[in-house]
Amino acid sequence: MRRIGNSMRIRRICAAALFGSVLCGGTAIAATQKPAAKSTPAAKPANNTARPATGTKAVRNPSRPSPAELKTPGAHPLRDGGVIKTDAKGFQRGFDKTGHIRTLEAPGIRAHFNANGRPQSFHVERNGFSQTLHRGPGGVRVVEGVHPAMGGGAVRVVGYGPHRGFVERPIYGRYGYMRRSYLVGGRPYAVVYRGYRYHGLYFYRPVPALIYAPGYYGWAVSPWAAPASIQAGFVSQPWYGAYGETFAPYPVYASPDQWMTDQMLSSNMQQAYDVSRDTQGPDLSGYPPAVPPQISPELKQQIDDQVKLEVAEMGKAASGGPATLAPPATPSEPDEVPDALRPGHIAFRVVMPLSVEADGESCDLNTDDWILRTGDLQPDGTVPVKVATSRPDECGAGSTTNVSLNDLMTMQNEQDQQVMAVLKMAADTMGKSGMPAGPAGGSGATPFPGGTSSPDTDVATTLQKEQGEAASTENEVVATSTAGGL
């Protein structure tokens, strides 16, 4: 990659940017246009539709000099004992009261550093390409690159370490569709998304690859005649021994939705365990712990209630047949309320690191934290939430903040994918391993062509290349943070 230079164009990013779209809190599948919010925009794709923005509401920090003041070369003291030094080129380097570098703002680059002097997050832009990095729990390098696509639009590459992530691109010839090619456990697979509009913004939601008979959706959310003891294969997995205090399966299952909830949570724990074993970097000390925060019985009940609600909503959508699942015919289709704002959609698992202002203090939310929506969409494009679970040194449980609707939709779409996956698992498990039989005629699963696509054949290579570029850029950011000065 070319050296970071003055030709790089700067944009604001979130304090601990990650997936701007992904980094800046954006969504894995968020809007292709950003709200008119005080958020952090990421790179602008070639099709002139803005990528998702960060989930934080901009808050003026009275302890920091104004932007106009910072443009003046010299040392600008901070109330906490630190200082921001602006050199003759306009580079701004922030130091804490012990003299350690903590922030950098220069043409085309914005970065935050941890106590070890390594970037905790950065966002860079150059010639239509942008890259964002955030160090997640345990120091894992989470990276997003946004590249112009040859056929128009943008290709996004998001990696959680070198062996997990996805490549997102438009599906040309199918208006309103987008595909993500995922790599998990060395296995590639694709998920299709359809677009829709809300208040002039463009969002995506996953399209089911299978449609079930109406009776199956009803069975999935109805109590059994008696609680069932179903074999839980995940208790023998290494993650279960490592995270035993975090995840408590139901001792018996009163209904299929409880079993599906446990399967979803166990999948989250498995992913967290896999990512924690794939961290990078020579020095990972000082990073937040990788162990997911504990899920209380009250939160688990909220999650289960939401699983039941989403299954019922999917059943209602599928009852209208393939036509109801098709994308809009034209961009002028009526608005659809985003799923994340629908009644009952309250609990959300954070899937990408976010930097937020919680109760007046800057803090991080990381993967596997949980938040609860406490209100509706605000005029600035954000949504109020309360932190339900978090790790030490993150936003405290019970604190309140705002996240962008884009960020919330990332979490919602991830949850939708998980519900679709556990619906299939339940259909495949009916009558086996202790699970009661399903409705007469079984699940009635029917493939839905609009929800299927082949993954990119080179997704593994693409993810590894993006991580290599990020490692090179990280070294450039470090070099820029120490060069020159006052």
Which stretches are poorly predicted, pLDDT < 50 over at least 5 residues?
A: 1-60
Overall mean pLDDT stands at 81
Give the class from helix and strand content and strand pairing. alpha+beta
Specify Rg, calculated over alpha carbons.
23 Å
| N→C terminal distance | 28 Å
Question: Strand order within the widest sheet?
Answer: 1-2-3-4-5-6-7-8-9-10-11-12-13
- Taken as a percent bin, the fraction of beta residues is 15-25%
Fraction of residues in H or I helices: 10-25%
Number of E-state strands: 21
Helix segment count?
7
The major beta sheet can be summarized as: 13 strands, antiparallel
Run of helices and strands: HEEEEEEEEEEEEEEHHHHEEEEEEHEH
Principal-axes geometry comes out as globular
Description of the molecule:
This protein has 486 residues and is an alpha+beta fold. The protein has seven helices and 21 strands. It has helices at residues 67-70, 214-220, 238-242, 256-276, 297-319, 405-429, 459-482; strands spanning 74-77, 83-86, 92-95, 101-106, 109-113, 119-126, 129-135, 141-148, 154-160, 165-170, 177-184, 187-198, 201-206, 210-211, 347-349, 354-358, 361-365, 370-373, 382-389, 400-404, 446-447. Strands 1-2-3-4-5-6-7-8-9-10-11-12-13 form a 13-stranded antiparallel sheet, with helices on both faces. The model is unreliable at 1-60 (pLDDT under 50).
Topology (SSEs and partners):
Elements: H1 67-70, E1 74-77, E2 83-86, E3 92-95, E4 101-106, E5 109-113, E6 119-126, E7 129-135, E8 141-148, E9 154-160, E10 165-170, E11 177-184, E12 187-198, E13 201-206, E14 210-211, H2 214-220, H3 238-242, H4 256-276, H5 297-319, E15 347-349, E16 354-358, E17 361-365, E18 370-373, E19 382-389, E20 400-404, H6 405-429, E21 446-447, H7 459-482
Helix pairs in contact: 2-5, 4-5, 4-6
